[in-house]
What we know:
Layout: E1 10-15, E2 18-28, E3 31-34, E4 49-52, E5 58-60
Amino acid sequence: xxxxxxxxxxxxxxxxxxxxxxxxxxxxxxxxxxxxxxxxxxxxxxxxxxxxxxxxxxxxxxxxxxxx
Length: 68
C-alpha cells in the first residue's frame, strides 16, 4: 500500500481521543506494522483517516486498498 500522491509507504493515524498523539506505521501482509511498540494502538478499518508521512495526502484507509 502506497500513498496515491507521492508513493510513500509510511503513514500515521491520530489517536481518536487525543489528536496530538500519533501512531506511525507501514502496511504489512497482516495489517499495520507500527514503527514503535505502542501499548495500545487504535483499531483501524476502511473508514479510518490515515495521513501520509511524506506529503499532505490524507484519506480513508480503504482508499489505499487496505482491508482489515
